[in-house]
TrEMBL record:
Signal sequence bounds: 1-17
InterPro entries (UniProt xref): Insect_cuticle, Insect_Cuticle_Struc_Prot
Domain of life: Eukaryota
GO molecular function: structural constituent of cuticle
PANTHER family hit by this protein: ADULT-SPECIFIC CUTICULAR PROTEIN ACP-20-LIKE PROTEIN, STRUCTURAL CONTITUENT OF CUTICLE
Gene Ontology CC terms, in alphabetical order: extracellular matrix
Organism: Anopheles gambiae (African malaria mosquito)
Name by which UniProt lists this protein: AGAP006863-PA
Keywords: Cuticle, Signal
Amino acid sequence: MFKIFVALAALVAVAAAVDDYYAYPSYKFEYGVKDPHTGDHKSQWEHRDGDVVKGAYTLHEADGTERVVEYSSDKHNGFQAHVKRVGHAHHSEVYGHQGGYGGSYDHGYGHSYSKLHKYN
């Protein structure tokens, strides 16, 4: 009798797991980070109701702008994202010695390989 009870309990557990597999997909979430020490500022939210997903995220770029991405997905339009950049880019000043062509390679300076001499 105990074996039948265990087998019946296992069968009920499997049936319950199958029912969860076909559950209607629906959720909402959001989070945000604002760390003044590292400068990490970002947030995201998302909402799903069946086959329709909508959401957005924002993050602060290194140049001082904010990237805003709004997205949606459904079975008719597929995945679509709209990206915006808010604000004006600010680039930090470069301090130190002038490198230039033939100079030293200091931090903050880019050098082009086009100025190298070609040897045949």
